[in-house]
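Input/output pair, single chain:
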Amino acid sequence: MKCYLIYIFLIVSLCASYSQTSNKQPVLDSIEVLIYKSKKANLFSNQERLAFALKAKELADSSDFLSGIVQSNLSISNLYWEMGLDHNFKTTNFENLKLAFKANDSLSLANTHYNLGEFYRLKSRQSDSAYFYYHNAEKLFKALRSSFNTAQTLLRIAVIQKNEKDFIGSEVTSIEAISQLDLLESTNEVKEIKSFIFNNLGLVFGQMEQFEESVLYFNKALDLKKDLPGDNKLSIYRTINNLALSYNNSGDHEVAIKNYNIILDDKKTISERPDFYALVLDNYANTLFLSKNYERLPDLYLKALKICDSLGDNSAKYNSIVINQHLAEYYHTFNQKDSAKYYAYRAKNISEEYHNDDLLKSLLLLSKIEDDRTAVKFYNAYIKLNDSLVKVERTTRNKFARIRFETKEIEQKNIQIAREKLWLTIISIIILTSAILIYIIINQRSKNKELQFVQKQQETNEEIYNLMLTQQEKIEEARILEKKNISQELHDGVLGRLFGTRLSLDSLNMATSAEAIETRNRYIQDLQKIENDIRKVSHELNTDFISGSGFVDIIKSLLETQTKAYKLNYKFDYDDSINWEDLTNKNKIHVYRILQESIHNIFKHANANIIKIGIQLKNNVILVSIKDDGSGFDVNKAKSGIGLKNINSRVEEINGQLSIESVKDVGTTVKIRVPI
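Output:
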């Protein structure tokens, strides 16, 4: 009953769930369409795309579709990024962290962590926060087996490590990123990310002054970038600039100049990316300076600086720090102190806004250019800043290590929890399985005992029935013998004497008187009647009962006993032509028990006065009918009763057929067909 209720509950739940899904389907389709439109930059403006994404979020929110809200937020945050709405981008992604976690959407959670890493790296320039979110994204992408996203995130982490001078860490992370990409097919996207990783490795080895490895990785990056479709000129030029810088730092100025000329000879560079052109021009001029080729100096420096100053943006302003430093070095070399100081102080003033290595270089440069006392002041400032920057770098690297450690610790705890849950599940399954097996064994033993009991009961019933048949046969034999004796006595004794008397009377019949003749005739007629009656009785007594009449007597005995006990009247009609010997003892027992159970049910439930039992033979099938004049019952509702179940079971045992007809306040008729 409990299982039945559980099945009903599950079916209702599934139906309800399906109904809800069906009702929500148009809304879900609308959300998907709106999110799709929000990504089509070639068809709609940023404002239109943002409106689509916001509408999708509104629909998802109104329909309580959590996953839809998360996806809408991702589209909205991407548009905020494109539109430069940094605060909105940050707020939306922080909101999405909670929603994606609640929705158990690991992919969206990973993308949201990645977005926040981008924000803190590029907008807020907080490397420790950026590292934290990138690291979380990497673990989630790795768990999802998303090798491409994992590699892309590892690249961002490697760049941060390089910027914070954790060069060994950056190298290890970059190699891990490449190993993730090696698992994938070499598509254009994979090649592009791999080229960026090689470029980062080139910069890392350049910083560690391992210039051969630096040149090797820059060339690998160039090979991949040149193989990519589309306009990759700027990306290629950036790697060439980095390659030339490595050659320059290694002392191979001639090769460096050749690489710089590849970029500078492209006249479109200055118009398309003037800030990058100024950077390359400064690097080219500095290579000439280091190779002591002063012919075009300081004009090239001044040209590069003029371009940066004309642009007026933060990127160009930052690039101008190095140009000013190079000009100060140039004028200091030629002992033009005023010019050297001018550009050195200018570099210092700009670099103070960033408080990084560029300020450190500016202070060291001023300590060389300025006079003794002022030089000492700048040198002390240089030492102090250097110690501060080293401390900050160490602290930052420690933060990175702590983030990795804490993440590993959390992972270990999660693994431990998962292991404990697994063992708990296994133990629970074992206990449940054992309980089920024990129940099955106990239940089976109980059934076996019950079956053994039924078999013993069956054997006992057959034994009792056989005893009854044996007793009945003995009674029948005694009756038959007694009948034969009586028949013989009548036939040989009484009939003989009567026959003699009749003959005597016949002899006296010769008298001629009318009275004598009439008297003798009357006696003779009486004697003839007596003779016929005795002959008839003798013949009937000498005739054997029908074969198998013993079972009918057993049934009669049952009817007499039970109806008397139950205070019922009965009528029993049976077919004399039935040879009960054709029926097995087992089948006769079942017929007997069916009649017994039926009479008991009539007494218990029907409130009847008379029972009619009929047994007929038709087409080699014994038809048994039990009819009462009781109150009747609803056959469909009563089928689960024990009495009817017993009758059904016995009918099935003899391969018979059962039919029950009942009318309330009229009575019930039970019909059974027993094949011989």
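The radius of gyration is 57 Å. Confidence is low (pLDDT under 50) at residues 1-22, 543-548.
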